[in-house]
Amino acid sequence: MTIALPPQTSSSPPGLxxxxxxxxxxxxxxxxxxxxxxxxxxxxFYLVGGALAGMIRVELVSPISDFISRETxxxxxxxxxxxxxFLWIVPVVNGAFGNYLIPFYVGARDMAFPRLNAVAFWxxxxxxxxxxxxxxxxxxxxxxxxxxxxxxxxxxxAGQVVWILSVLLLGGSSIFxxxxxxxxxxxxxxxxxxxMQLPMYCWAMLGTSILVVLSTPVLAGTLVLLSFDIIAHTxxxxxxxxxxxVVYQHLFWFYSHPAVxxxxxxxxxxxxxxxxxxxxxxxxxxxxxxxxxxxxxxxxLIVWAHHMFTSATPPWMRLFFTIATAFIAxxxxxxxxxxxxxxxxxxxxxxxxxxxxxxxxxxxxxxGITGVALAQVPFDIHVHDTYFVVGHFHYVVYxxxxxxxxxxxxxxxxxxxxxxxxxxxxxxxFLITFIGFNLCFAPQHWLGLNGMPRRVAEYDPQFTLMNQIxxxxxxxxxxxxxxxxxxxFWSAFSGRVAGDNPWNALTPEWLTSSPPPVENWxxxxxxxxxxxxxxxxxxxxxxxxxxxxxxxxSGQ
Amino acid sequence: xxxxxxxxxxGQNVELLPVAASLNAPIYDQLFKVLFSIGSILFIGIFxxxxxxxxxxxxxxxxxxxxxxxxxxxxxxxxxxxxPAIVVLFVGIYSYDIYDRMGGMVPLSxxxxxxxxxxxPQASDGSSGxxxxxxxxxxxxxxxxxxxxxxxxxxxxxxxxLPVEVTALQFAFLFHYPQGDITSGExxxxxxxxxxxxxxxxxxxxxxxxxxxRLKQDIIPGQPTLLTFTPIKAGSYPIICAELCxxxxxxxxxxxxxxEPDEFATWFEKNNTATVAIAPSTSSTG
Lengths: 556, 286
What we know:
The structure holds two protein chains of two kinds. Chain A is mainly α.
């Protein structure tokens, strides 16, 4: 097994990595450190993006543009979208949990390319600060996170170019991460560990990484062309110079629809890890779950034009993309039914991790149903680019992915720190997040159906009440981060000591100490043949009394 | 069974949409009801199942054991693969039918003949046919020769359509009636008469949206676009720009006024500048 070399800056010869808290600020090669770096950085940007969302909701309390100027409003919504997608959700569900968990799951001591891994993370803070700094220095981009030309060619150039630069860096980081995950899952498995024995999160990350590697370069190329249009006045996407604005939309959505799956598939994987542990049952239908991930990956690549039903797309294309999009509901549905079957007949612990995961199921089913509706061209024609889409999208990525991120933090915090999070605070956090989220985004569906377009600073006064309800929900969501932050900081230092395996879980990360040592195991890594071997069977050892080591040494 | 009935009832009885004021809107609302019923059944079913599991199978105080070691069931898997597949297929075919009734499947050939007949800036129909072919294959077409069609472009029904040229620019819609050389900031149309919008954008992408008509079409610079609809209910409805077009995007709104036929004639005559010179006798001012 290759052992990562220490970074040049490390002055202490005996340690392979920088020691203590400083390693979290260093070019560390330890996958666990990098994972936590992703998570903390991601959460910082979540607070930034949340503050931006707060500004949007404050502006929309009244139907006139009175809180911030219209230009600023467009900068804020552009930054909100970009920060939340590229700096919070993608890095956290992929980078943070992926880096932390995948090496454990394949029985490796680190990722396949530790140095590339560190580079991938360290692209994120500069890109993020560049993006945020652009607001203070030159004015941020104003053309939305989609940056459709010709608007992105006519808004102030400096902000747009910085936006492109920042997204290119983040896309590069994402590609590096994707290559690393593919290599790790395919090539770093312990001898004897078969693909079909891997925990579901590995499959989710494999599928996600395939999407990342296939589609992100397309976005990068597109943005480079867009920057040529801005800086060098070329005419790729500029109709005034003979270009075509719709081509940009095709290329952009060729990445940005799979990006939804890049944000959601890892969340599916994480839920598949959390539910069996807290329901004390095997994951239902492992094989179909694997194939449904592959199905989502394949279909996810051929649905992008459903974002363009009101652009000039020929009818056959509309028909094809309607059917392809609607069919994603089938593999996705399989996953949800399997999760419900996993819960059925279990011994479900109603803790924060489980509650957040179940709320994810509810929200994602809702977002999925509106998604299938949106896939129907005639339906989409009316609600495209309205608050209906805003509601749908947030149900999928916030109600879906962000709820899973919180659930996962409650689930893996004991492993990260060796201490438990406070359950009462956790359930309180869940309650106000759940109420706030639904209060904020459910009314937006009605707003969209009745005539409120998205990305507006002012609106028809008849929509005032619904917008105010939505803003109250947003306020609750903002408040809900407080118990979470208090819980995390308090528990990290004085929470109940967790022990190695507080949940009596069977996946490999729980079969080492908490927090795990550098290179994950003292001695050989355990070979786990069945990560979901829960359930009462004759002759089985009592899981309530067993430690991880006993489970391993009993040769299950 | 009760679940299905509840879903159907919700679909039929919950009103979430604004007034239906165009020929396409009731068709749209039909689709909405079907989707809403199916969605309600699925959502209530899954939510109920989840809630039931969480309560029925929750871990009681002092319980430490595991659940049953059930790892899967092939028949169940086939069942819940097949049912959604059938539902999705049904919805897809149904919405295709709706789309067809809205006139969505016709535009590729139709707008061109219209373009040749009505717009005719450069009329060589043979070459424009070749352009269609080329553009279908993905070659960038020449913007001046191709007219893009929005939904409903093939839906010309009874009576001649009222042509209106729409220019979208930051941050307004301008409406020009070639028949009377009227330029207006509002769109005035006649109840029951099809309207043919020939839309062009000056600067950036805009979108023409009338929620009460269930109609939306992007207007993309360099791509003249044709959109037709038939209003069926008199009244004033908002026209909203639905594509981010700059700082004043939220303020880019106008009104479409659907007149009763005689009212419309009055309005048209009052503002008519072209025919006043040609045929003043027809205008009866009163």
